[in-house]
Amino acid sequence: MRRSTSANRGSERRGSKAGSVLIQGIRAAPVSAGCVSWRTRFTLPLQISGIVSLRPGLLYILLLRSWSIRTPVVKTIIEPFRIKSVEPIRRTTAQERQRLLEQAGYNLFLISSEAILIDLLTDSGTAAMSTEQWAAMMRGDESYAGSPSFERFRAAVQNIFGFRHIIPTHQGRAAERILFSVICRKDSIVPNNTHFDTTRANIEFCGARALDLPIAEAHQPSLLHPFKGNMDTSRLEELIEREGRERVPLVMLTVTNNSGGGQPVSMSNIRAVKEICSRRGIPLYIDACRFAENAYFIKLRERGYADKTPLEIAREMFSHADGCTMSAKKDGLANIGGFLGTHDDSLAQQEKNLLILTEGFPTYGGLAGRDLEAIAVGLNEALDEDYLSYRIASTAYLGDHISREGVPIVQPPGGHAIYIDARAFLPQIPPAQFPGVALAAALYVEGGIRSVEIGTLMFGEHATMDLVRLAIPRRVYTQSHIDYVVEVILEVWRRRAEIRGFEIAYQAPFLRHFTARFRPVLSRAEPKTPFVSSPRRTKPDPAES
Ligand SMILES: Cc1ncc(COP(=O)(O)O)c(C=O)c1O
User: Fold this and answer.
1) Which of 60, 371, 471, 535 fits a 20 to 30 Å CA distance from 255?
2) Could you tell me if 95 and 54 lie in one domain?
3) CA nearest ligand 1 atom 9, residue
4) Whole-angstrom Cα distance, residue 85 to residue 108?
């Protein structure tokens, strides 16, 4: 289903025997769809030559034949599943969408999902569960205390993450709130490569400061770097020297770095950050939401990991950490759930006490037994190599198809999402007028696609970029859905000069992007709507005919 792109074929040509290519001098694997490992091509004939001892001419013919038999001709990476249950999606007209958007104050969070055609708002909690997960859910034991479902959940989590204490929570932010309430003081500073919005908000809610320390390359959307999610270790060291170890109760690394473009963190960066922390007795926590995608990027791009399984790589990642927060709604392939992991007995006790107060007993932590079962199975499915290769290739497919037409995106494509650089897409709109909000609104009006702004609205003064994230739910959409998304984006790209900015009509004191309402910034001469689909569309919308 996924076509081998010309860029991808170029990557293969540039590949080394280790099955990797160079991105601006740094070894990285081809991230495009349809890639074939060089290892397959070269090692098989050599193995045959090792066991056949014949005259050179005959051997040559045999090698040629084995080559033609064994060379993988079909390069298409397919969805590694078939569909058993379908959920209809509804088309609306552009006029309907314009009206719904106005009613929602131009905030896509406030639109009913029934009026969305392709929902790329988030990859969180939106995965399609497998037959094994549904089967496991039937085994769910709903006992208040001591449920065997918890035992299975804990065993699955410990097998991958290795922490002594596993504390279930209803989702990632509950784990964050409990951790920061226990560990942070009012003058604390928590460094991260980039804090996700809920992480930042939970730290700030405790009166502490959340500080982003990504590498400099992370601020340049078009720059290629294999591990753009890395933390700037020099700045981390400087910070700890300047502020004092006592003010830094923990250091966090978000894998992959969601707010920084879904970019991975390398194993060597995890090791380097851990080394800095260890010297000063500061615990390192990993925000583990997309740990499997990060592990697969390490396999593809980091020297020494090509032959390791994603499970082995994930175990190594967490062997460097003292704890983690996890939203199982991402690489847990579950619709709800999360957990907190730690090796620290006394911290775990305090966290469980708080958990009982706000989430539930430590053997369910705000989840049903069946949710614990779904996560236990999902965590392992997320580490399956066929799944990960399809996952990374399908995200890159969207990125490659729009960027080759000039649409500015964060490069290289991330694991779970494509991030359009809204400042470069809409240079006529200053950050204070929310270019990301304007672009997300235009994509909805044009084609019923829901995306999300990650920029000035979400992070206020901390925003260094204005991005529109198109997050791909796991195992949900097929290639034709993504082809449709490509077509809509390119149509909006062609008409980008017509798009205008917004100003805020209402905002909440925390996490304002969820509930904010806007009004268009219009000059008197302009039409009333900031972006209305025009009849110049390339293909007719069947719902309008
Ligand atoms: C990196 C990161 N951390 C934390 C969270 C919060 O998880 P949850 O939505 O389960 O509360 C998210 C959610 O998207 C995330 O992407």
Assistant:
1) 371
2) no
3) 172
4) 27
Which atom of ligand 1 is nearest the CA belonging to 327? 10
Domain annotation covers residue 523:
yes
Q: Which of 178, 196, 259, 371 to mutate to test the pocket of ligand 1 (most atoms within 8 A of CB)?
A: 196
Looking at the structure, tell me whether residues 420 and 530 fall in a common domain. Answer: yes
Does residue 142 sit within a domain? no
Q: How many helices (H) and strands (E) are present in the chain, helices listed first?
A: 19, 16
Are 207 and 186 a contacting pair, CB within 8 Å?
Answer: yes
Q: Determine the structural domain holding residue 529 and report its residue range.
A: 88-127+416-544
Structure tokens at 439: 């672009």
Encoded amino acid at 179, one letter: L
Looking at the fold, whether 9 and 123 belong to one and the same domain comes out as no
Residue 462 resides in a domain:
yes
Distance from Cα 173 to the centre of ligand 1, integer Å:
6
Q: Which atom of ligand 1 is nearest to the CA of 122?
A: 14
One-letter identity of residue 170: H
Residue having the nearest C-alpha atom to atom 15 of ligand 1: 196
State which of 109, 126, 173, 514 you would mutate to test the pocket of ligand 1, scoring each by most atoms of that ligand within 8 A of its C-beta.
173
Alpha-carbon distance values, 246 to 210, 234, 324 (Å):
15, 19, 20
Query: Ligand 1 atom 14: the closest Cα is on which residue?
Result: 124
Dist. CA 292–CA 314, nearest whole Å: 7
Answer yes or no: do 431 and 503 share one domain. yes
Binding-site residues, ligand 1, Cβ < 6 A: 124, 171-173, 196, 198-199, 254, 258, 287, 289, 327, 329, 338
Backbone angles phi, psi at 73, to 5 degrees: -85, -40
Nearest to 263 by CA among 389, 395, 439, 175: 395
Per-residue pLDDT of the chain (545 residues; tens, 9 = 90+): 444 443 333 333 333 333 333 333 333 344 343 333 323 222 223 333 333 333 444 444 444 444 444 556 788 889 999 999 999 999 999 999 999 999 999 999 999 999 999 999 999 999 999 999 999 999 999 999 999 999 999 999 999 999 999 999 999 999 999 999 999 999 999 999 999 989 999 999 999 999 999 999 999 999 999 999 999 999 999 999 999 999 999 999 999 998 888 999 999 999 999 999 999 999 999 999 999 999 999 999 999 999 999 999 999 999 999 999 999 999 999 999 999 999 999 999 999 999 999 999 999 999 999 999 999 999 999 999 999 999 999 999 999 999 999 999 999 999 999 999 999 999 999 999 999 999 999 999 999 999 999 999 988 888 888 999 999 999 999 999 999 999 999 999 999 999 999 999 999 988 899 999 999 997 655 544 555 433 333 343 333 32
- Do 59 and 116 belong to one domain? no
* CA–CA separation, 295 and 280 (whole Å): 27
CATH number at residue 469: 3.90.1150.10
> Are residues 14 and 113 both part of a single domain?
no
Q: What is the number of structural domains in the chain?
A: 2
Radius of gyration of the chain (CA): 24
